[in-house]
Amino acid sequence: MQLHNVRVHRSDENLARKDQLAWKIAEVAADPIPVSDEVTEMVINRLIDNASVAAASLTRGPVTAARAQAMAHPRSNGGEGSTVFGLGFGRRVSPEWAAWANGVAVRELDFHDTFLAAEYSHPGDNIPPILAVAQHLATARGLSGRDLVRGIATGYEIQIDLVKSISLHEHKIDHVAHLGPSAAAGIGTLLGLDEETIFQAVGQALHTTTATRQSRKGEISSWKAHAPAFAGKMAVEAVDRAMRGQTSPTPIYEGEDGVIAWLLDGPDAAYEVFLPKTGSAKRAILDSYTKEHSAEYQAQALIDLGRKLHREHPELVDPANIAGIVIHTSHHTHYVIGSGANDPQKYDPTASRETLDHSVPYIFTVALQDGTWDHVDSYSPERAGRADTVALWNKVTTQEDKEWTRRYHSIDPAEKAFGARVEIELTDGSRIVDEIAVADAHPLGAKPFARAEYINKFRTLAEDVLDQSEIERFLDVAQNLATLKPGDLGRLTIIARPGLLTSLATPNGIF
C-alpha cells in the first residue's frame, strides 16, 4: 500500500491533478493488475450474498416501488440493457435504473456485507451498479465474468480504503459519500477506461452523493434502502458523462470549497489515505464480512450473545426476574444504535422496521427472549409490541466502554472487535456477566462464513420466492463467474416464481 497525504489546498496553490486523491483513485482503478483466485472466490460469495437478501426483499414496498420505476425506463440504444431482480432475462432496463432497483433490493433488509473502521460501509452496494453496466455493455465491449470480477474488486478496494481513512459520520454526512466514488472507479475498471475519464467520474460521483445522516437518525424511513442505490445510480451517470468528455469540480476533495473543507474536518484538515501501489493486487474485499442476521452489524454479535444467554439462562426470558441490563460497548454502538443516541424511537414498539433494526436494546431483548433471530418475524409489530418484551426492552441501556471503542478502531485484525460486555442485574441480587468480541459468522468468530454458509443463506432466503430450479440455476452461474462469456452476464440475476410479482400492487408515480 502507498500512503497519500490529503489536505485542503487554497485555489492559488494550484494543486496538480496527479496529486489529487481522485486521481490517485483513478490510477488504482486503471491499473490492469489481475485479481487473485482468493479474491475471485470472495467476489462470488458476495454475489450470492447480495442475491440472497434481494430475494428475501422482492415483495417489500421499497423494492416494489424501485422496481416499478426501473421498469418505466427500458434499455437505451447504447447496449442490451440490464436485468432487474425478480424479472425475466428478457426484461431489460437502462443500466442506471437497474442499479437503482437492484441496489434497493440488496439494501432493504440491511442483511449483506459490512466493513467498519473510521467510517461505516456496506461494500456489497458496489455490486449492483457495476453489474448493471457489465450486463448492458457485455456484447458491445466483449465483457466477461473476469472483467466483472476486476470491476467489483476495485469497487471494494476503493470504498474500504476510504472507509479506513476518512470519517463521514463525525460530520453527519451519510456513508454513501464513499460509495459514489468507489462504484465509479469500479465501473472504470470494468470498462478499461483511462485515468482521466475515471478521475472525472470519481469527482462527479462524489459531488452528487454527499448528503446528511438524517436518513439514519430518529424515525428511520424507507430512504435508508434507497440511499446507496441512489449513489450507485449517480455513479453510472457520472461515468457516462465522463466518457462523453464532461468534467467534474476539481479538486473535489482538497479544494478550498471542496468536500473536506466544508463537509468534513475543515480547511485545516489532513488525512492519510492508503491505496494499493501500481502493480499491487486489490485485496480489500477480504477484509470485509457479511451478516448472519438481518440487523445493523454492531448488533450481530449481540444477537449471538443473546441466543447463548437464552440457552444458558432461561430465567432471563421473564422481565420480572431482571432489574436491569447494561451493554458496555463501543462509541458507535452506544451513540448510533444504543441508548446514547437519545432517540426515543429506539424504545418505541410502534417504530418502523428500519428504526428497530438500528436499536440494539430492542434487538438484544428479542434475541434474549427468543433464542433466535428471523429477518421477518423478529421485526413484526406483534413481536415488537408484546408486553413482556416492552417491559424487558425498557430495562436495557448501553454505555460506552473505551476499551471496546479502542478495539473497534484497531487496525490489528486479531483484536478488532464489534462486540460488548453485558451485565445483567437480577431482582434477587445476583448478576450475570458475559461478553462477545465478534459475531459467530465473522472470520474470527465461532462459526465463520464460507461458501457453504453463503449458499445456505441463499437457499433459506430464496425458498419462498424462487422455484427450486431457479435457485440451482443461479448458484451454478454465480459459482462459474470467472469463466462467464459476454452472453452469460445477463444470467446473473434471479427470477421470481410465476405470479409472485404480478400479484403485488404496483405504486404509480410520474413515470
Automatic annotation (TrEMBL):
Q: Can you name the source organism? A: Cryobacterium frigoriphilum
Q: Which family does it belong to?
A: Belongs to the PrpD family.
On subunit structure and binding partners, the annotation says: Monomer.
Q: Which UniProt keywords apply?
A: Lyase
- For whether the record's keyword set contains Lyase, the answer is yes
Q: Which residues form the MmgE/PrpD C-terminal domain?
A: 293-481
The record lists the catalysed reaction(s) as:
(2S,3S)-2-methylcitrate = 2-methyl-cis-aconitate + H2O
A molecular-function term among this protein's GO annotations: 2-methylcitrate dehydratase activity
UniProt superkingdom: Bacteria
Keyword Lyase applies? yes
Q: Which InterPro entries match?
A: MmgE/PrpD_sf, MmgE/PrpD_sf_1, MmgE/PrpD_sf_2, MmgE_PrpD, MmgE_PrpD_C, MmgE_PrpD_N
- State which Enzyme Commission number(s) the record gives: 4.2.1.79
Enzyme's top EC category: lyase
Q: Which Gene3D superfamilies match?
A: 2-methylcitrate dehydratase PrpD (1.10.4100.10)
What sequence ranges are listed for the domain MmgE/PrpD N-terminal? 20-270
Return the protein name. 2-methylcitrate dehydratase
Q: SUPFAM superfamilies from the xrefs? A: 2-methylcitrate dehydratase PrpD
